[in-house]
Amino acid sequence: MLWQTGKKDMLDLALGLMLFISALLSLHSKDTMKSGVFFIIFGFLSGLIWVRLEAPDVALVEIILGSAITGLLIFKLVKGSKQKDLKAFTFTRLWAGFISFLILIFMLFHLTTIERQDRIASLVFENLHKSGVDSAVNAVLLNFRGYDTLLEVGVITLAIFGLLSLGLKREAYYWDNPLLKGFSRLSLPFIVFFSLYITYLGTFSVGGAFQGGALLAGGLVLFALAGQALPLKASIIYIFTMAGLGVFSLIGLLYALLGYGFLTYPLELSTISIMIIELSIWISTAFLLYTAYSGKL
Amino acid sequence: MIWFYYILAILLVIISLYHFIVARNYVKRLIALNILGSGVFLFFITTAKNTNTESPDPVPHALVLTGIVVAVSATAIAVSLILHLNKEEE
Amino acid sequence: MISFDLGYLIVLPLLASIFSLISPIRVYIALAFSLLSFLLSVYSFLYTLRDNTPLYQWIGGWTPPLGIGLRLDGLSGFFLLMIGIVSLFVALYSISFFNVEYKRQGRFFWFFFFFLWAGLNAFFLSEDLFNLYVALEVLSLTAVILVALPGYKKAIKASLNYLFLSILASMFYLLGIAMLYANYGVLSMSLLSQKLSDTQEFIYALFPITIALAIKSALLPFHFWLPPAHSSTVAPASALLSSLVIKPPAYLMLRLWMEVLPKDKSLEYLSIVLSIMGALAIFIGSYYAIRQKTIKRLLAYSTVAQMGYLFIMVPLYYHGEILKEAVLQAFALQVFSHALAKASMFLSSGNAIYVAKRDELSYMPGFAHSHPFTFFALFFSGATLIGLPLSAGFVAKFLFLELSIKLGFFLHGGIMLLGSLLASLYVYPIWKECFSSHPTKFYDKPIPQLMEISAFLLGFLAFSSGMITGFLLEGIARG
Predict the structure, then answer these.
(1) Coiled-coil segments, which residues (chain B) (predicted)?
(2) ipTM strictly over 0.90?
């Protein structure tokens, strides 16, 4: 096999190397703050690599949710916790290293058994025109395997309400800066529309409800960071957070009661059903993540 | 280049596993778990590229998307628990 | 006429969880939806007794490998019934429990309770590997939150430990699915079983999946998270965790070994390793249970031991296609009897702690004198755990014994008998305390009726269902 390193391959190598190094730095660093920073870099590079691997929708979700929001959560932790990192016993490190090495060899052997095949891809593309959307990933996400997404929306709703149930009274951290106040107030309407646009874009191109929702959450959090309260009643925010799970379940139930089957959209109604579901996921993801930040309703 | 990414994914998995076992700090272990997740996701996405069709396989993409949301949810719970624990210790 | 749709079993509890957040009619909503979900589960079970073929449903109308499949066959219908029964009685108990203490947690409890029910139904119905991953996450994350519910430091620590191990296990499971998908290109279990018949590559993927399921079901040596987690939380949550949440991974293991994996020499070695771990779980779990001085930890270690039964039988899953019906019956009944009995015991322990305000065995109220219902609850459920005759536990262990003798695994049968003896050694101290006539142990505090009755009925059901096992297990092997 000829090993030809073209320009694109050099890019792959560089990205991969940077990814690995940022992961190492994040894990190895003694200071938890540095670990957090390197983790955000790692997430960002992950997203870039996935764009290289032709997975732009997933890259978007990773950069927004996996890198930015997870990084935000970890910084909350680093700020609030003691920064201790004791060295583990040598014995632990020895057998952990041994096990890791074994797994490496094991997985390398497994790699030799993987072949290039079509898997489910061809089926998806064949049925794409029946799904109601033009984007393949969103067709899988909201139609072919929509049931997974229903449970997933459930998981994120559950996590945030679990957070609330712990009853941690957090002092809302805010930065009393007129520049921030003004900027967040100006940008919020734009962010609302932009996130809505990204959600709508998911129907025929790269985008989707989770990405849009997380973006909107970012805008809301920025607004709250400046110390301002959202001009919405607490009960409205409550309803918004449950909207995703509620609407999705109700639509699934509705189609079951009507005789089509659970979560089975009739062909003509599939696009509109998916759009309604996407909107509900958009608004609930935004307010759920905002609630996770603000810690109270 | 596919094999390069597969090996990268496996390397991510094992270094994060090593650090998960070895680290004494909750934050480090949480980061290690997230990096482990990213390794598994990279494995999936590389598999998606490993097809004969023109565009990559959208099914692993959807699976990874779900996986990321689930991982963020779990991280949120973990962060909340750790904060609660630290608060109690004060 | 509304046709029966498997989606109802999942969507109904999901909607219930959302509606239950609306106060103040929370309790009525909880009661109404619990009854509805219970009736739906009973209907599904009776449905499986009717037909001869399993009910497959492809969500969205897309057949696998494109879509996700739900399957209602004898085994899953039976477990749906089990989930329904335990959940209903825990719900009745909780209505009263959160009325008298932990009122703040009672606001959110119902949300998690119904979410758990939805996740359990989703798990037992699904036949898609990734869907099982998401359902497993639903269960694990809800369980983590339930463990942390009381809010004191011990619970949070146990919950955090549980969470970390749970995420690790989920990531391993996901890795296993990734490997299987890379090799075979399908996620549906039935399609996978067809593709696996001649190949060997699945062995690689089996390792992370087995480790993941072992961590999740607290098999030795991954059992360390269970005793703190199940004992640090409120009684209804402990009941749900020990009786229901711990079972799905073992169920998945059964499905994989009996329906998906083909015959292969290396699988035989793996089955031997798993059965050794199961035997060790029985011994070590029982040993620690005997040594415990507090009720809840005792029951938690007992769960570790009882789960060992399910793993010591792995060679039987592997070798036992000829006796497939018997294997399924034994497994199902063991899970069923343990679920009802353990839930009843945890609920009764909640009663004990309510009266005595303490967890230690030596402070346990003399229930035989003051609260006979609770004593009988403990008696019936304890007897089922040990496997005394007439109880469902006895029939389960008898079936296992019969199976192991027929297939020539005498050692396994012997260990299971020993396990019953060990179980009696840790159940007996509980009974002993009930009869204690020490004056300070007569607590006058009356236990709320609903709490007592629900615990008692569950225990009684655990015991008496031994007499109707014929009816219960009739449809198990269908499909």
Answers:
(1) none
(2) yes
